[in-house]
Amino acid sequence: MKSLEIFSGAGGLAKGLELAGFQHSAFVEFNKHACASLNENFDAEKVFFGDIKDFDFSTLAGVDIVAGGPPCQPFSLGGKHKADQDSRDMFPYAIRAIEQLTPKAFVFENVKGLLRESFADYFEYIILRLTYPGFAAKPNADWKEHLSDLRSIGQLSYAGTKYDVSFKLVNAANYGVPQTRERVVIVGTRSDLCVSWSFPAETHSEDRLLWEMYVSGEYWKRHHVPESERAPMTELLKEKIVRLKGKYGMFAPEQLPWRTVRDALQGIPAPEAQHGIGDHVYHDGARTYPGHTGSDIDWPAKTIKAGGHGVPGGENMIRYSDGRVRYFTVCEAKRIQTFPDSFVIKGAWGEAMRQIGNAVPVLLGETIGRALAAKLGMLNASFDMKQSYRARP
C-alpha cells in the first residue's frame, strides 16, 4: 500500500508507517534541514522541498493513505494561540490533499492544544471538513459560515467523497514510547469502504512500572541499580503503592511497564567517553530552574520539545538520582522518540533537536500504521475474493 507524507518533518511518522509496511509515494516538506534528513533516510527523489501550496497532487496515483503533522504552532499551548488566524495553519492544505487524492485513509497528528476550549469551533470545522472534503464553501464565505453549512449538510445535497473520522488524545508512553507525550491523532477511513476503525489498545502502563519498582523490585534488579541510587519512596508514593496493591492484589497489572529514560538509553555509553558515535556529543551548560527540571532517569522522559530557537533550557535534559543534570545528545533524543540508531538527523545540535522534538514517535506511527494496514489489508483481501468469485465461469 502506498502513502503520501505531507508536512513530513524529519520523518518520524513516515518511518513508522514504513515499518508497518507502507511504501512512500512522496514527501512534502518546507524546512530545508528536515528535507536533508528525509533525503538521507528515504528515497531522495521522492522528497519535495517547498511549499505544499506548490505541490501538484495530480502527479500521484493510487495513494492509499495520506499522513502527516500539519504545523502545530497555531494550536500549541506555548504559542500565540491564533488557530485559524495564524498563517502557519496548514490544515486547509491537508484537506485539499484528501479532496484531490481520495485515499482509503488518512492519519494526522497535532498538539494537545488543538483540543483547547477556545478552539472548539475551529476543531469541529477541521473534523467536518475532513469528513466532507469535497463540500466547498460558498463564494466569499468565511470558515464560520462554512461551518454553519457543514453542520446542516444532512439537509443539503452532497454526493462527494465522505470519510468516517475519529480522533483521540494519545499518550505515547501508553504504547511503549519512553516519553510522556500527549498528542491528538486524527484518523479517517473512506466511508464507502465500510472500515470499522478503532484506535489500538494501549500496551503499557504507569501502574505496571510502579509495581515493578516498588512491589516486585524487578525494574531495579533488571538494571542492577543499588538501593542507594533508587528513587526514594515519598509519602505520596507510599499512598499510591497501597492503592495499587489494593487494586491488583497479588497479581501484577497485565500491561507492560512504561519505558523509562534508563530503559531507552541502555547500551549507550556516556557521551564524554570515547565511543565513535557521531551524534552522541556532550553539550555543556545544562541547568535547572523553576518549571524546567529535566527528565528523571527512572521515569519516561518529559515531552521532547522543539522550542522556538532549538533547545528549550531545562526540558531536554536528563536528571540523575543525585540531582546532576545534562542535556540529551541527539543520539539519546532519537532513542526517546524511538528512531532507529541508524536514522540520520541532519543539522547542528539545536536544529537536530528541533526536528526530533517536532517528530511523531516512530513506534507510535508504526502502531497506528499496523492497525490501519490490518484493516485495509482485510479490505483488499475481501475485494480480491469478490473479484475472483465474479470471474468464475
SSE layout and pairing:
Blueprint (H helix, E strand, L loop, with lengths): L1 E5 L5 H8 L3 E7 L2 H10 L5 E3 L15 E4 L22 H11 L3 E7 L8 H12 L11 H9 L11 E9 L10 E9 L13 E2 H9 L3 H6 L11 H14 L7 E2 L3 H4 L30 E2 L20 E3 L5 E3 L2 H7 L12 H10 L3 H30 L2
Parallel strand pairs: 1-2, 1-4, 2-3, 4-5, 8-9, 10-11
Antiparallel strand pairs: 5-7, 6-7, 11-12
Helix pairs in contact: 1-12, 4-5
Summarize the structure.
The protein is of the alpha/beta class and 393 residues long. Helices cover 33% and strands 14% of the residues. The two termini are 30 Å apart.
Polypeptide structure, described:
With 393 residues, the chain is an alpha/beta fold. The chain has helices spanning 12-19, 32-41, 91-101, 120-131, 143-151, 206-214, 218-223, 235-248, 261-264, 330-336, 349-358, 362-391, and strands at residues 2-6, 23-29, 47-49, 65-68, 105-111, 163-171, 182-190, 204-205, 256-257, 295-296, 317-319, 325-327. The strands form 3 sheets. It has a 7-stranded mixed beta sheet, sandwiched between helices. The protein folds into 2 domains: 2-202 and 360-389, Rossmann fold (3-Layer(aba) Sandwich); 207-254, no CATH class. Helix 1 packs across helix 12 (362-391) and helix 4 (120-131) crosses helix 5 (143-151).
